[in-house]
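_Backbone structure tokens_
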Amino acid sequence: LLLSYQFVKGAVDPTLFTRKEGEHIILVQIYVDDIIFASINLSFCDKSADQMSKRFKMSMIEKMLRLQISLSPRVIFINQSKYALEVVRKYGLDQCDPVDIPMAERLKLDEDPNGTLVDPTRYRGMVGSLMYLTTSHPDLVFAVCMCAWYQKKPTEKHLITVKQLFWYLKGTINIGPCYPKDTSFDLTDFADADHACCQD
């Protein structure tokens, strides 16, 4: 459908579609049952959403999916607290107690072939919601990617790990990247390759 509206499918990511009109560009990311429209020109988002809703039954979350960006003279702060609260409620985890870490230390996830299977659609939806939140929560990236490995046949063990991510999210909803203006900063990365790994 998107191709019929002059969108171009991503070469690296086949779920990412782009369309350029003059100086403006719109990005459409599809993940399981979620569609994200992104553009500096919000009328592009609205137009694309209207086109999609004519063909598919859709409900719009409106600004829940948009980044909340706060500008001050000295810093730029990004978060997704509205969306985070919405997904915590959506999966019935709003009454849970928050935890301090996204994933149990030294947890080794594996396929868990003898584990009790859980609803894969719900599991994928939970992982997809968390994946989107990594934009403002880079602290979730590693754990969410670990959970994403097991979307084909998720078990109770995998679901508990995903729920812990939501428990962590509940306690860190208002946290996000903060960028000081007029300050140069270096991007530094670190990977503890022995900390956790895929056992499969």
User: Anything to note?
Assistant: The first strand starts at residue 8 and ends at 9. The mean pLDDT is 84.
